[in-house]
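Dissemination and training. As part of the outreach component of the grant, students in the summer workshop were shown how a complex can be specified as a set of sequence lines and then modelled as a single object. The example used during the hands-on session is reproduced here so that future cohorts can follow it. Participants entered these lines:
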Amino acid sequence: MRELQELSSKLLSEGDVSVVIGYEEGPRGVRPAFIRTPEETNRLVFDHRAVQNLAVYLSPRRAHLRKRGRPAVVIKGCDARAVAGLLRESQISRDDVVLIGVRCGGVYRDPESNGPLSEENVADRCTGCDLREPGHVDHLVGELPSEPPATDRRKSRIAGIEAMSPEERFDFWSSELERCIRCHACREVCPMCVCERCVCEKTDPSWVESSPHLRGALAWQITHALHLAGRCSDCGECERACPAGIPLSLIKGKVNQVVEDRFDYRAGDDPDVPSPLGDFRLEDDQEFIK
Amino acid sequence: MARIGVFVCHCGENIGRTVDCEAVANACGELPGVVHAVDYKYMCSDPGQNLIKEAIAEKNLTGVVVAACSPHMHEKTFRKATEGAGLNPYLCEMTNIREQCSWIHEDRDAATAKAIDLTRFISEKIKRNSPLAPISISLERRALVIGGGISGLQAALDMADGGREVVLVEKQPSIGGHMSRLSETFPTLDCSQCILTPRMVEVHQHPRIKLLTYSEIESVDGYIGNFSVKIRKKARGVDETRCNGCGECQSVCPMKKIPSEFDAGLGNRTAIYVPFPQAVPNIPVIDRENCLRIKGMQKKKAKAACGRCAEACGRDAIDFEQEDTFVTEKVGAIVVATGYQLYSIGKEQTRKGITGYGEYGYGTVPDVIDGMQFERIASASGPSGGEIVRPSDGKVPKRVVFLQCIGSREPSKGIEYCSKLCCMYVAKHTMLYRHKVHDGEAIVFYMDIRAGGKGYDEFVRRAIEEDGAKYIRGRVSSIQREGEKVRLTGFDTLSGEQMEIDADMVVLATAMQAQPGIESLAQKLSVSYDGHGFINEAHPKLRPVDTNTAGVFVAGACQAPRDIPDSVAMASATASKVLGMFSKERLEREPTVAGVDKVTCSGCFHCERACPYGAVERYEVLNRSGEVEKVIAEVNEGVCQGCGSCQVACPSKSIELEGFTDAQIFAAINAL
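and obtained this result:
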């Protein structure tokens, strides 16, 4: 923590960056913080409650943040996947941002949790994490903590849905998505949603119904999942932000699994590895062409 | 308001037999926005086209739908007619009720209903069509020819004589290709070199031909009218500007026993060599594998080995240190004329899936040679000075057996096609042999004799009837050494007899294959090739020298097995295509290209990665102070082929393909 605060103070006082985007204590666990002076850096914290993916603040859609000058951003290994995605898709250039990587031993599902990490409170994505130390960063802080506890909660839920018949599965998702109020919090919080204008509001005639109706909700969530295939950093923010409690990370988790099975690819922290969605290789699986 | 005219064609019986065209026209007349609907026997005929023109004028149509054959067939015809009547041609669309309806269905009622659906589909689309204007792009009026064999030479000469500059790139140290190695040519028996070398010299001296020998294509960028080609000039080891071709270096080179490629391994050459006396340019090249000096340099020996050629050279032209250099040429059109290689008879093969003929003992049984080796033996410039002698002991062979179809038409060996010219050159070989060895016996084993062509069958008849070649229909199963003779075991399929023949020499007529490495060149040029590596033409009948990439043409044996007359005809055809293209100052092309919505593009460049033609470029959006606000995608209209890959890849649907916008397609689908 001290290391992170000192580094941030140095970056700000030397004028390297004009804002450090990190975590601070908030009313419900930790919350994102925008630190602009060296004096404020003592507010920065980092622990198991740091669930938020701060890479979302680098997206060019947040031009008002960009205008405040060059940022440094605190990122965990999983967040580094999103940063790599933004770099891969030319949304940011590497020189425009300073990346402060933190070694991470896993986070809670809910930033309000406390106590040691356990099978019950650990975030799904932390199981088997291979990016506890983010690569391709400018600074790396913290000691490498021990591995987070593993949970097969999401895996077993996905397996449960896979075991359903198509009709049961449709009923399951219908009942979940019926609650969707189309607030698009899932989109706002998604670091990979970089479009200037979302496709669901662009086409004329509209392809995605905009009223909170099951048809539109299904169409939107399918569109979001497909647009994230091979790009999703699996930060789980969509599900965490959803006020209706729709288990969106099950969809994303399944799509990620399909991409991994088909193309032997998981969104990593290296921006130079192309995503299968934007890349053609002769050895790509082509069994779908029959 | 839309005022659509629907024109339903019977295509004689082709559509009318299965589809009730009158009913289609009547039903379409009721569609919203359709103000005119008629059917006619042949809409593409003059009276048919006039129906369209008259309706446009009389009914003041805003769109024309022709329900007929495939747009591949007649879209141009009908768009031209539409334009002739003063309507923008892109306000005319076809719907295919022949290939996609009448030809594939039998039930008349169902087919008629489907034809109505298909027509409604397009009539909804066309309401959203907008007038488009052709795109004009700049044109570099110079051409590149790849390959300096007879095809490449002919193409280069025709284009240069037509007034355009040509860059001719040849991989080998000399131009001339395979033809320069042949003794005489069928069906006239004129000397190959005598007709070829004047052409080679003409190319060399032509003021508008830039000749780059010992060079290869490194990369190709750009598009029709504006190619940028990077060419690797391989290190020759000899300064071309200083060398006067005196040949002193060759005479002092101590490496004298290197098998000559030109003589198909029957003769020898030195390490610094001119491939053959009539080579163009007459400048030697150093074989880096065999030169003692260069091998010494590669091993970093302190004391320089050899170097006699450099000492002998009176003009200080030898440069052992020379390295590969690169030149970039800007051209508007490219002719691919890379030719062929001969099938390798032994087990070693350059192409996958092809097995050799180990049973014929090529390379192990002496005096079993291939057709090209026989050409060299029979050639006046060959190692034996044109005297027919066998390689093992230099004796004149009194019985020579020729085997046809070695490799060709043998799917089990990997090549199912006919190489086309082996029947002819075997007949020629028997004649050449009999003309020189009067008491010799020429025996030919053949599967069929394929001698289609002007004077070709007469030529084969002459070999059999006048020059006494014995043709046996059948195959040879094995070839073995028997004392000084070569014993063939075979089968005569006409008499049904097993035969054994002792020959003095055996000549194997090998198949023609695509050049090794042609795939990599084809990929650089974005042209397609078949499973054998032959370049695909755009249309086997109507566009035989075009490729599927605009501005790239194909001539000669790199497209399929070709003999000399065919190759020359193809080469002249490519030249006429290129000259036709170069007759205008600028190129016009179809406006159905992609365009980017600059407001909503977020610059993720998925389109750039999806584009197979490299048409997506980066465009900087500036704010009022001239600073870069964002970088977005832009489509180069000259390169875009309108395939729509980018449109699909764009996550924010910020790319539209002109003539195929989402709104048009959506409306069409909704109409079904």
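The beta strands of chain A are 19-26, 29-35, 44-45, 71-75, 98-102, 139-141. Students were then asked to discuss how this feature might be tested experimentally.
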